[in-house]
Amino acid sequence: MSDLKAKVQNIDPNVKARSINDFIDKTGNIYESLVAISKRSNEISLQLKDELNGKLQEFSVTSDAIEEILENKEQIEISKFYEKLPNPAVIAIEEYLNGEFSIQYKEVEAPEEA
């Protein structure tokens, strides 16, 4: 996962206008490209969420008193780091345009005629 974090730190977090032809080139269909990007974006989002939750679990303290909520500077820094990362959709678009993931289609068998 640290590979993903290192890679996305160089990506501009702002959304940019893109040419539709860049998306159509690989699949021939804009909708198929957008579905692939959407699915990859969901994967990235889940990966980052799991990693962030894992890191924040290290700081969790089980306590009976609600008033005893402690602020930890390390925990705040970790949260800020993840907030500054680009949106998973932006990351997925960059990966798609750079050819870092491929699209695979499931084979659908034709129904047999009686």
Account of the 3D structure:
- The chain has 114 residues and is mainly α.
- It has one domain (2-97).
- 57% of the residues lie in helices and 0% in strands.
- The chain has five helices and no strands.
- It has helices spanning 2-8, 20-27, 30-57, 73-84, 88-97.
Chain-wise SSE layout:
Layout: H1 2-8, H2 20-27, H3 30-57, H4 73-84, H5 88-97
Helix pairs in contact: 2-3, 3-4, 3-5
Summarize the structure.
By secondary structure, this protein is mostly helical. The protein is 57% helix and 0% strand. Helix 3 packs antiparallel against helix 4 (73-84) and helix 3 (30-57) crosses helix 5 (88-97).
Number of separate helices: 5
State mean pLDDT (0 to 100 scale): 81
- State Rg: 20 Å
Assign the structural class, choosing from mainly alpha, mainly beta, alpha/beta, alpha+beta, or little secondary structure: mainly alpha
How many domains make up the coordinates?
1
Main pleated-sheet profile: none
Report the strand count: 0
The geometry reads as flat
N- to C-terminal distance: 51 Å
Helix content range of the residues, please?
Answer: 55-70%
Please trace the helix and strand order, writing H or E for each element: HHHHH
Unreliable stretches, pLDDT < 50, 5 or more residues?
A: none
Share of β-strand residues? under 5%
Which short descriptors sum up this protein?
mainly alpha; 57% helix; 0% strand; 114 residues
